[in-house]
Predict the structure.
Amino acid sequence: MAEMMKGNVAIAEAAVRAGVRFYAGYPITPSSEIMEYLSWRLSEVGGSFVQAESELAGINMVIGASACGVRALTASSGPGISLKQEGISTLCDEGLAAVVITQVRYGNGLGTLLSAQCDYNRETRGGGQGDYRCIVLCPSSIQEFVDLMRPAYELAEKYRIVVVMMGEGTLGQMMEPVDLPDFVEPERHPWALNGHYTYKKIGIFQRDSRKEAVELVAKYNEIKANEQRWFDEGVEDADYVFVAYGVPGRAALGAVRELRAAGEKVGLIRPITAWPFPEKAFAKINPNVKGVITVEENATGQLVDDAALYIKKTHKHRNIPAYALTYVFNTPPIRSIKEDYFKVKNGEIKEVY
C-alpha cells in the first residue's frame, strides 16, 4: 500500500532496499535529508555511514567502498557535486561502480536553493577531467526515483560506470504516495578487491592508451544501443513535439494533453536517460513535424542542444527547427507552457536552431 513520503526520505529508503551498505557525504540543501536518514538507517542493516569533512573526502571514500565491491552512494547538489567531479572521473577511469544523486538547485557558483535543471550539461557530458560519460537517469516523480534505484546499481555494475541520478530540488522536498520496493541482497562481484588489484588498467603508454580508448568507446556504444529510456506520447502524428525531463516533463505532459483536447497536434518525449540520450524516441517522430520544443528549468537552454542534434540525426531529409522554453527555476505551470506554445506557433518565439 502506498505511503505518503517526502522525496529524499523515500529515495534514501529505496537505496537501502537496493542493497546500499555505504554512504559518505556532506550535507547541502536540498539533498541533506538523504544523508540524515541514512545516518541511522544504514546501521540497522549492517551498513556504514560517514559524514565526511568535505565533499571531496566523501567521494573519495565512495571510491574505496566501490573498489571493495560494496554498493556505495553519495548525494549532493550544485557546488557539492562540482567538488565531487574529480572523484567521479576517477571512478569512471578505474571502472568502478557507484551511484551519485544530485538534487539540482539553481545558480552559478554557490547559487540559490531554488529547484532547477541548470546542471544538465555538466552531468551529461562527464563533468570532470577526462574523456568519459556517466549514465544519467532523470526521474520525474518520487515513485520513479524510487523505482530506478535498483536499476541504477545494476547498470553501474554491469558496465562498471558511475550512474548519476539527476533529480531536482523539488523532487527531494515534495511529498507523494510511494510504494517501496522489496529488499535485495547484492552479490560481491569478482572484480572487487580481494587482496590484490584484479582490474588491470591497460597503461599510460600512448599505444596502450589508444587500445584503452577503443575499448572505452565500444562500451559507450553498447550503452547507447541498449540503455536508452524514455516516455513518449502522441509523437507519431504531431506537428510539434515537446521535449522535457524531470518534473517539467510532467507539466509538459499536462500541457500536451490539454492542447490535444483543444485540437492541437502535439506530442511529448520525456527522456528518462539524459545519457544515453533517447535517440530511438526521436526516430518515432512524425516525418512532417514542424518543430521540437524543449521545456527547461534554466536560463540558457541546454536540453535544446540535444533535441536539435537528434531531430537532425533522425530526420535528415529536411531542416526541422528546435525551440527552447526556458523558465529559469521552479516548475513551469501548464498554462505558461500552453501560452508559449502558441507564441512558437505564431512566430513570436524564434528557433534556437
Summary: Residues 124 and 275 are 6 Å apart (CA to CA).
